[in-house]
Design a protein that fits this description.
Layout lengths: L1 H27 L3 E7 L2 E8 L1 E3 L4 E2 L6 E2 L5 H13 L23 H6 L7 H5 L12 H11 L15 H15 L3 H13 L5 E2 L15 E2 L4 E2 L14 E3 L1 H10 L8 H4 L15 E2 L4 E3 L7 E8 L2 E8 L4 E7 L10 H8 L11
Helix pairs in contact: 2-6, 5-6
């Protein structure tokens, strides 16, 4: 009887989630892959649409997507691993590792929590680039910061302001302390140990984008997004992965495989006292403080033809992972899904186990 009840619940849930994602596809043009878990079990995984809109090659749950800013959580863990090894402290100033870094008061914690005030590398570097097609590395970004010393946006530590530059600087620190590229560090320290066989960090400075990566499209598929010079910079973006590999990552974050839990949990602590509600920020994760009985952390991403979303409920080990390679409003229209999963309107599929 329990097995039958489980199958009935499973079909009911799959049908309800199919209804939501088909609505997102038909209304907003959702094109991507989805994995939803509850209590450490996958309850839904499915792909919708195409990896290549011209050839009509279909997506699947092993399709490899650019994660955009969902990449930042990986950068944060890399820094936390170096801290665990005694190679840095969160209160260390960046000048300890890059003596010519122009913003003398910026610490690693400022970068992790987005409180540094340093300028956006894209707006700073673009006028300096003679060859717009030549990719820029993290180390070259650091060199240009040191040479030109641009003004910061606000006094370090004054308040929170989301910063891609901050996480690119963190990746440069990982490279400096590890003696290897950020991509190689992540491969050896994270992806291989966790069995994330389809995940990697891509830098245009190092290699061509593997053909396994799906193509990204702007304006609801109007044109293919360019692989431009800023794809040489990692840390703020440029982790590539699948929904299935991200579930392995999700599960590993509940264990001591990468870091002891008491250290890892610091990533999910609010780092910005002036922020209330659902948009505080820890280390690589936004933190929803609206719902007091649940610890919900999440991140979204948007970069060069890709929209991404990753949410975790740390209390019941449920998650929502959505990767899309077509920029449109579908990722902005997840309220129905969020309500369904987070408010328990879907019957639990694992209580009978």
């Amino acid at each position: 009887m329990e097995g039958l009840l489980h199958r009935i619940k499973s079909k009911k849930t799959e049908s309800r989630l199919d209804e939501i994602f088909n609505k997102l596809r038909n209304t907003y043009g959702f094109n991507g892959a989805v994995l939803i878990s509850e209590k450490d079990h996958v309850i839904y995984r499915k792909a919708f649409g195409y990896s290549d809109l011209q050839s009509r090659q279909e997506l699947n749950t092993k399709s490899v997507f650019q994660l955009a800013s969902v990449s930042k959580q990986f950068t944060a863990v890399a820094i936390m691993m170096l801290k665990s090894r005694g190679l840095l402290k969160y209160e260390d100033k960046v000048t300890k590792f890059f003596p010519n870094f122009p913003w003398r008061e910026v610490t690693i914690r400022h970068l992790l929590n987005h409180r540094s005030g340093i300028p956006d590398y894209r707006w700073f570097l673009d006028p300096l680039m003679v060859n717009k097609n030549k990719p820029v590395s993290n180390q070259e970004m650091m060199r240009q910061f040191a040479i030109h010393k641009p003004d910061n946006y606000f006094s370090t530590g004054a308040h929170h302001a989301y910063s891609n530059s901050g996480y690119a600087v963190l990746a440069a620190i990982v490279e400096k302390l590890s003696g290897t590229s950020f991509s190689n560090f992540m491969k050896l320290a994270v992806f291989e140990p966790l069995g994330m066989k389809h995940s990697y960090v891509y830098s245009k400075c190092e290699k061509q984008l593997p053909p396994s990566a799906v193509k990204g499209y702007e304006r609801n598929g109007a044109y293919e997004a360019p692989n431009d010079a800023f794809n040489g910079i990692t840390g703020d973006k440029n982790v590539y992965s699948t929904v299935e590999d991200l579930f392995l990552w999700d599960q590993a974050l509940y264990t001591n495989k990468l870091l002891p839990q008491h250290e890892l949990l610091q990533a999910f602590e609010p780092g910005n006292p002036e922020l209330k509600g659902y948009r505080n920020y820890g280390f690589g994760w936004r933190i929803n403080q609206h719902i007091t009985d649940k610890k919900i952390v999440y991140h979204s991403g948007w970069w060069r033809g890709f929209r991404t979303f990753f949410l975790r409920n740390l209390n019941d080990h449920s998650s929502i992972i959505i990767l899309s390679n077509t920029v449109n409003y579908s990722i902005n229209s997840l309220g129905e899904l969020y309500s369904l999963i987070m408010k328990g309107e879907v019957d639990s599929l694992v209580t009978e186990y």
